What we know:
The structure holds two protein chains of two kinds. By secondary structure, chain A is α+β, with helices and mostly antiparallel strands. Chain A has helices at about 50, 180-220, and strands at about 5-10, 15-25, 30-40, 45, 55-60, 80-85, 95-105, 120-125, 125-130, 155-165, 170-175. Chain A folds into two domains: about 5-175, Immunoglobulin-like, CATH 2.60.40; about 180-220. Chain A has a nine-stranded mixed β-sheet. A two-stranded antiparallel sheet of chain A has the order 8-11. Chain B is an all-alpha fold. In chain B, helix 2 packs across helix 8 (about 170-180). Chains A and B meet through strand 11 and helix 2 of A and helix 3, helix 15, helix 16, helix 17 and helix 18 of B.
Amino acid sequence: MATLSSSISSQGFHFTVSTTISVPGTLDISHSRLHVVYDLDPHVYADLYELAQRPGYSSFLWGTSDLEKPVFAVPSNNSVLLLTADTSRLVAPANITLDVPLHARYGRPVASRTTDTFYRITLEKPLGFLTFDLHHSTGIPEPLGSYASLAGWPSNISAIISDATSADRLQVTIPVGVSDDLAWVDVGTAVVMLTMFFYLAHASLRTVKRLSRKTSTKTE
Amino acid sequence: MSSHPTTILRYVPSFSRILLISTLLRVALIGYSEWHDAHSVVKYTDVDYRVFSDAARFLLDPSPHNQAEGPLARYLNIGSPYTRATYRYTPLLAVLLTPNEWLHPSFGKFLFAGCDILAGLLMYELLVSVILPTSPRPDARTQAKDTKDSRAGEDMRQRLATFLVSLHLLSPLVFTISTRGSSESVLSLFVLATLYYALKGRWDLSAVFLGLSTHWKIYPFIYGVACLGVIGSTGSAAGRGWLGTVVNGRTIRFALVSAATFIALGVGMYAIWGQPFLEESYLYHLTRLDHRHNFSPYFYLVYLTYPSDPPTLEPVFWKRLLRSPLTSFVPQMTLALGTGLLFGRRREDLVFAWFVQTFVFVVFNKVCTSQYFLWYTLFLPLLIPQLSMSSRRAIAYGAVWIGTQALWLSEAYKLEFLGQNVFFGLWIRGLVYVVGNCWVLAGIMDAYGRNQSR
C-alpha cells in the first residue's frame, strides 16, 4: 500500500509543503492517477501560475485565489488545492515528492502588544488518493466526502493513501500588525509627509528665484 | 557637473563600443536567465514577465471563457489579456509580447533589452546635440582659436556623453530590470522620445509620444504641465504674463494633440477589449490599496485601516481626514504639477523639471517599489552636466539615497523571509527613506544651473 508523508519548510510569509508518496512495487499504478489535496486556511494562498511552472504535477484550485488582499478582506472559507502527479515515467517501487510553494496573506492586526503579535496558521495535512483511469463505480471515501461536490472533482476514487507521519497538522507562524500603532502611524505619516511637502515646496521656490535672478541678470 | 576629470574621459571607450558591450551583456544575461530558471526553484525572471507572457498567450488563444469584450470583439477572434489575473497594463504590451508564444519565450526580454539600447542612443544624441553644447560659450577672442581645439572639444563632448550614457546602460538597476523581463524600459523609451522631440522643438511629435506614454502608464501626464510653460515661453506667446504663457494657441494645440493620442489609443483598446481594459489599466490604480510592505510609509497605515467586511467607519473626524486618500494625493499632485509649472520655463530646463516632477511623484506615492526609481534615474545622465556640486556632496547624496534603501530592505527581509514582527520598525524606515530622498532632491535642486550662463 502506498504511504504519504508531509513536511513544511517555513520562511516568513513564503513556505513550501513537501509531500512524499512512497509507491511500493506491489502497487500497479499504470491505470491510475495519483492526487494530493491541500485544504488551505484563508490565511494561505496558492499562486496557480507559479504552480504551473513547477515540474512533476498539474494543479487545480477551488476557492479564492486573490493574491492582493489581507485575510480579513477575502471570504472566510478554505480554498482547496488539488495536485495530480505526473506518473508517466514512474516505475514502482518509487518515491514521488511534490513541493508546493504557498504564501501567507497579511493577518488581522491584534489590538495591542500585550497580546501575541503572531498568528499561528494551522494547515490540514495533505490527503493523497488514487483514481482509476477507466470508469469504475466506487463510493466516496469518508475523508474526501466534503470535496465531492466541488465542480470537476475527480471521480473513480480507488484508494486513500495512508499518512505515515504522526503529527496531525502543519503549522506556520506569521507576524501581524498592532492596531495600537495606528495612533503613531496616523499622525506620524501625515506629519512627515506634510513637513517634507513644505520642505520641498520651499526648496523649489528658492531654486526658481535663483534661476530667475540669473536670467534677469543676463538680460540686463 | 562643473568639474569633469578629463583624465578619466581619456579612458572612456567609443560610444559604439559601449553600445556593443551593453548589448552583449544583455544577451548574455538573457541566455543565463534561461539556464538559471531551468535549474533553480528561485527564478531569475521577474514574476511580472510571467504575467505578460500569460496575457499574450490568452490573447492569442480565445475560448468561451476567454474572449475580448469590446464592441468590435465580435468581428475579431481574439482573447483577452485580462483573463490573466493581476494583468493591469495596456493590451498593447500583451500584443507586443505575442511572439513569446510563436517565436521564443524570451522574445519579450530581448525586446525590453532593445528598448534599453534605443534609450541609450536617444540619450547620447540629446547629450551631443542639445545638452552639452549649451554649456558656457567662449568669448570672441577664443573663437579665433584653431580648428584643432574645436575638434578636441567635440571629442571631449562625445566622450563625456558616452560616459554619462554608460552610467545608464551599464547600471545594474537598468540591465537587470530589462533582462529579468520587466517592461519599464518600454515606457522609458517612450518618455525619452517625448523629451527628445520636445528638446528639438518638434512639439507635435512630442505630444504624440506624451499621449502614448500616458496611455502606457498614467503618471507621464505630469510632463505635459512643464511642456506648456516651455512652449508658451517661445514665439509670439512670449512676454504675455504667466496665464498667457500657459494658455495660448500653441499650448492648446500641444494639449489637444496629446489628449487626442491618449483618447484614440484608449478608444481603440476599449473597442476591442471593453470594460476590463478600463478597469484593469486605469480604474484599478485609482482605488488600489497596497497593504503589503513597500518603501512608502503609507503601507502600514493602509494595512491597519484596510476595509474589512462589514466596513467600519472611523468616528473621529481628524483621523478620517488623516487617512483620506486626499491627504496623500494633494501634496503629491501639488508638488508634481507645481514643480512642472515652476521649472518648465525654458527648453534647457525641461530635463531638470521632469526629473524633479518624477522624483516627487515617486517619493510621495502611496506605493513604491525599486522599479519606480528607474522613472527618475532615467534623467540623471542628461541632468548631470547641468549640476554643480563638489564630489564630497555628490558622494553624500549617493550614500543617503542608497543607504535609506538598504536600511529599509534589511528590515523588510526580516519581515518577509524570517517572519519577524518588525512592522513598526519598517514603517519608521519608510519615513527615513522619504526624509532622506527629499534631502537628496533638495540638494540636487540647489546644485542645478549654477554653472550655466542663463
